[in-house]
Amino acid sequence: MDKPGKFSSYQKLVILGLACLLFTVVLDYMLLPALSGILLYELQLTTQQFGLITSAYALSAGISALLASGYADRFERKSFLLVFYGGFLFGILLCALSPSFPFLLAARVLTGAFGGVMASICFAMVADLFPLSQRGRVTGWIQMAFAASLVIGLPLSLFIASSFSWQMAYGLILSLGILALLMVVVLIRPLGDSETGFSTPWVHIISNLKKPTYWIVYSANLLIVGGDVIFMTFNAAFLTNNLGLDDSQLPYVYGAVGLTSLLAAPIFGKLADSFGKWPIFAFGTLLSIGAVVVYTAGVIQSFEWIILMHVGLYMGINARMVSATALTTAVPKKSDRGAFLAIDSSIQQVAGGLAAALAGLVIFQTENGSLLYYPQIGWLMAILMLLSSALIFLVSNQVKVNSKSEES
Known about the structure:
Elements: H1 9-34, H2 36-42, H3 47-68, H4 77-97, H5 101-115, H6 118-129, H7 132-163, H8 166-187, H9 201-209, H10 212-232, H11 235-242, H12 250-275, H13 277-296, H14 303-328, H15 337-362, E1 364-365, E2 371-372, H16 374-407
Antiparallel strand pairs: 1-2
Subcellular location: Cell membrane
Domain Major facilitator superfamily (MFS) profile: 14-400
Transmembrane segments: 12-32, 52-72, 79-99, 105-126, 138-162, 168-188, 215-238, 250-268, 280-300, 306-327, 339-364, 376-395
């Protein structure tokens, strides 16, 4: 097992720049559902129209990520990143200026087309700049951007939206995004020449799709994302309608989730580098399954226990995500890395949409508002977690084989 080395000063600056950039992308992704009540009223939207606006981002992101995979390894990483992030910020500007449903729908399509590719580009850069022995910690630190969006960014954005206007909330993201853009321009050096030798982008895409070892990773991440989304889709409704929480208590639940992620991600990243990615993933799986099965059964209804179950569940989810992401970056060869991660991102976007639809087919709401069959959601998530664990075990073994062949 490789011993994790210390980060250089430059590596620390890279982590900071990428984390700040992803903070804005995640905040944008989470803000729209949180603005549902305001947008339905101010733009006079139907629930179907709002659902279309929400799904437009995921569909656009999935298509864009697949198309971008053919070009991801043909251009220098930093330049590729700046082009897509610039497009993302332009989409955010259109969101901030949106006066109507058609305008906002178009803005979300554009934002998804550029924003949906950002994570894959960032993690391709991580794989280029950091050895496998450091990637667990790098992933953990970058994952803190997701937690910070939940703990800091989302409450601040909602305060601005309720106190001033929802457009100003997008203005906040735009302002932070411009600062993040300048930070990346200044802090991160170009990563060298682009890869060469590709006949056409489509040939590059197809060559990546034909490799069985890559599909093990694609399938594992599909199950990981699918399981998480199936649980999250109706969690707020289950908390209020079945467990009796007030709407005013929900921010405390999600605040606890965000704080847990903020603290757990770097810790599990360090543990993954020290003790191995697969053992940490397995630990996270067992912890998550125990928490979700007990929680979705609905037998524990006190506020303190609900908080505790969410803390346990998201500790497990963070352990799984950090270790799986670190392993994922070690599978493709460098000439495939950008395309591989872009295709993986596309599949995850599609998986999230299908998982939300599947949750809607399983769950039914009674006349008094309570949800039926939510325990089945817990068991379904547990099954998907076990299946993904088996695939991640195969990925871990493949990474070990690749490491040995590179050493010999």
